[in-house]
Specification:
66 residues; two-stranded antiparallel sheet; single chain; two-stranded parallel ribbon; alpha+beta; 4 strands
Length: 66
């Protein structure tokens, strides 16, 4: 049973887009690894942009710079 955890900085994509992404990833697991779709878990997790850093700078600050 694959468990795929996708972490994204806020804001999260809307539910419709998450549904599409989850379906596409599930299809990849089925096609390439022979996994059962009903046993493939996709979990979207939101990480606040202020708590995610690149090179010591938060994503929130990087976004402010454009």
């Amino acid at each position: 049973m694959p468990f795929i955890n996708i972490k994204l900085t806020s804001p999260m994509p809307d539910t419709k887009l998450q549904d599409k992404i989850a379906k596409e990833i599930t299809d990849i697991m089925v096609k390439n690894l022979g996994k059962v779709p009903q046993r493939t878990v996709i979990c979207f997790e939101e990480v606040p942009a202020e708590g995610f850093y690149f090179g010591g700078e938060s994503v929130a600050e990087i976004r402010k710079k454009g």
